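Lest this sound abstract, we let one protein speak, letters for residues, whole numbers for local backbone shapes, and leave readers to judge:
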Amino acid sequence: MVASLVMGLVLLLVALVYHAGRRAGFKAGRQVGRAEAPLLLRMRYQLDARCPICDDSEGLAGEEAERERCGS
């Protein structure tokens, strides 16, 4: 009787710790996603020379594009 009660409490504790860790992991993942999203959009814009949001495939041309690549 006592062994099954202890085993039940251990399993409950394991389930609670798993749940807390899972919630913390999702929270950390959302924070990383919010931080990386603007960087990935900017990288995609510079590599493809088109806007990933509005799908503007014209981009910049000539000297404007060169200045944009150089960061000035």
Remarks:
- The mean pLDDT is 83.
